[in-house]
Specification:
There is one protein chain. By secondary structure, this protein is α/β, with parallel strands linked by helices. It has two domains: 195 residues, Spore Coat Polysaccharide Biosynthesis Protein SpsA, Chain A; 52 residues. 39% of the residues lie in helices and 21% in strands. Strands 3-2-1-4-9-6-10 form a seven-stranded mixed sheet, with helices on both faces. A four-stranded mixed sheet has the order 5-11-7-8. Helix 2 links the parallel strand 2 and strand 3. The protein starts with a strand and ends with a helix. 40% of the residues are buried.
């Protein structure tokens, strides 16, 4: 069973070596790893060049500098640039992987094993944990989604959903499409599948609160009802950044609602 990884990235020099090493040390390595450098201005290009020279299965695609990090649609635009370099006919699985993660060494071996046992699983992942005050804590992702920073897909399912949409909340829309077509989307919180998210969730563009507002816009884009969004925002107030994270989610949703 062969799998390929595609990793969009921009200015990930602070975190990327942890991800590179954790993929290299996997018990089941990818056949191909396409890393799309989306115009980095830090040491990212030099680090990527060094690893690509050491490992011929790591391939680098370099894009011009757009002048800023473009999360959401921009991430998928970069992902699709890498996808052009992969012949899906040659692979059983495809993975979209961020470059700010630290994976357990059997991560992909376990995911592949579980997908073999259940052919209805279209996409899956482990659960992300962040280090806060010296402790690894979870953001309590639901079990019915594969998480956006590591989307592991059966190629058949990936083709059926038409790939990722180039919109905010692409990483939720894909799971809804999976279920609509009869596939299972899931994630597991087993210790051997827990991975560390080295960058605080939602902070890659400006700040965590900007990310929370963007999440609120994405929920509106997906058609989430106002009562559900209020309940969801209140629930998120229990997690860091306390109160303000949930509040800014609701603000992002309401701004989108008022602009319609």
């Amino acid at each position: 069973m062969k799998y390929a990884i595609i990793s969009p990235c921009r200015n990930e020099a602070q975190y990327m070596q942890e991800t590179l090493e954790s993929v290299i040390n996997q018990t089941v390595r990818p056949h191909t790893w396409i890393i799309v450098d989306d115009g980095s201005t830090d040491e990212t290009p030099n680090i990527l060049s060094r690893y690509a020279n050491l490992h011929k299965w790591i391939k680098i695609v370099t894009r011009s500098d757009r002048g800023k990090r473009n999360v959401g649609p921009g991430v998928i635009e970069a992902f699709n640039e890498g996808l052009k370099k992969v012949n899906l006919d040659n692979f059983d699985y495809i993975c979209k992987l961020d470059l700010d993660l630290k994976l357990p060494e059997k991560y992909f071996e376990i995911l592949i094993g579980r997908m073999k046992k259940n052919p209805r699983i279209g996409t899956c992942s482990g659960k992300p944990y962040e280090k806060r005050r010296g402790k690894l804590v979870t953001d309590n992702y639901g079990d019915e989604m594969s998480v956006g920073m590591t989307k592991f897909y059966r190629v058949t399912c990936f083709r059926e959903i038409g790939g990722f949409v180039q919109e905010v909340m692409w990483d939720a829309i894909d799971c809804h499409k999976c279920r609509y077509l009869g596939w299972i989307a899931c994630s597991w919180d087993d210790p051997e599948l827990r991975f560390e998210h080295l960058r605080p969730e939602g902070s890659s563009q400006n700040s965590i609160l900007t990310g929370r507002m963007r999440h609120g816009f994405g929920q509106y884009y997906m058609g989430t009802s106002l009562p559900f969004m209020i309940a969801s925002s209140i629930y998120r107030m229990k997690f860091p950044p306390y109160f303000t994270g949930g509040l800014f989610m609701l603000i992002g949703y309401l701004q989108s609602l008022l602009k319609r």
